[in-house]
Amino acid sequence: MSSKKFLSTKKTAQQTISISPALKDWITRYVHVKYRKNQEDYRFKSVSAFYNYIMESIMVLFNNGKTINDLNRVQDKKVKGEKKVKGLFERFSFNATIPLYEMVCEMAKYSPFSFEFNTRFLLLYLDKFKREVRSHNFKDVELFFEEIRSLRAKSNVSKDFTLELIQGKNREPAKGTFEFIAKYENIHFENCKFFAAVFGMLGVRVTDFIYSPNNYYCRMELIETNLLFEKVEEEREKLPKKERLKERLKLIEENVEYIANFNRMLDDEDYYFWVKLAEDNEIYVSFKNQTAFNKWIKNIEVHLRKFGKKEEFLAKILQFFNKLHWIRIENIKNLSFRIERALEENKEQKQYLASYLSKISKISEIEGICYLK
Questions:
Q1: pLDDT tens per residue, range 51-86
Q2: Dihedral sign of CA atoms 21, 23, 28, 29 in order
């Protein structure tokens, strides 16, 4: 049994300890959130009260023969008990090999955010927010964010993220600063896009974005919109459900543009910009000379003959010129196509096309449509 003198409720002695700024901030934030949940709980009246409670509890456990390993086992059970909360996101989650996923994210860096694919997932955040946050109650907002943070902030790809809120005066909209530190550059950038989309779905606008790829750090400046605390009853009176969702989707699009835009892309690798160009059918590739054309067509031929099927060779060649936006395929099965008008006006590039196709096939034309045989 522990001596009662060690568990005295009088707190007169002082003990100074040194901890890291990060740990101090973590403890302070934890106590702050717990106190807001239950202001009658003596353990969270202050940081000092929390320290005292923790030290007394640990010493009692040690005195009863418990060890740190016992605490870890308890923590493992707690994690299993949190499955219900995590289950909210589980059907949208999967285990992935980080280096492979990092590589995939690199290629998708400036790809548009898929609203159709992600809308249902983002709506989970919105539904949870509406259930747990009372109108214009920023304490509830902080508790909501802290719950998400406790589940998502620290992982194999993320170090931490924080949200600092500043309430507006005289009915001015509240503002916030979101900071996010990660461990991998491309996954981090993709997650920045995702967080911008989450804020948009909740009704929060991104007003500035600072990003450091070398330190895997980002900061978003945020501001409240009238969508944030718009009640369901009020929404029904104002706009149909589809129209309300359109407003949020528009805000998502605007937020994500702060992350992925041409201003940032032009400072990045060339191929990101070329991917955008390839998506525009009003643009076509022009070779500087015959040598450049011959080099590319030879590389294409080598791979088609090595990895493709002989009977598909002509169809693949047409697909190559279609991707250059030189032709528009009419029917791939009968190898029919139209030459793009812009190429018709470029005699040199058209000659490259005509000369090459004449070497590998016979060409016929009927009412503007060309056929290979």
A1: 887 887 777 777 766 676 655 554 444 444 344 445
A2: positive
Q: Are both 259 and 123 inside the same structural domain? A: yes
pLDDT of residue 9: 55
Dist. CA 214–CA 117, nearest whole Å: 30
Cα torsion 141, 143, 148, 154: sign: positive
Sheet holding 336-339, edge to edge: 327-331, 336-339, 369-372, 363-366
Question: Residue 368 — pLDDT band, cuts 50, 70, 90?
Answer: very high
- Percent of the chain past pLDDT 70, that is, above it, reads 83
pLDDT at 234 over 70: no
Amino acid at 65: G
Can you list the pairs that 135-139 forms with residues at least 24 positions away whose Cβ atoms lie under 8 Å? 135/229, 135/231, 136/229, 138/165, 138/167, 138/174, 139/36
- Residue 175 pLDDT greater than 70, yes or no: yes
Range of the domain at 312: 290-372
Domain shared by 215 and 138, yes or no: yes
Q: Which of 265, 300, 320 is the last residue of a domain?
A: 265
C-alpha 358: how far from chain center:
48
Please state the length of the chain.
373
Domain boundary among 250, 265, 280: 265
Q: Does residue 297 share a domain with residue 198? A: no
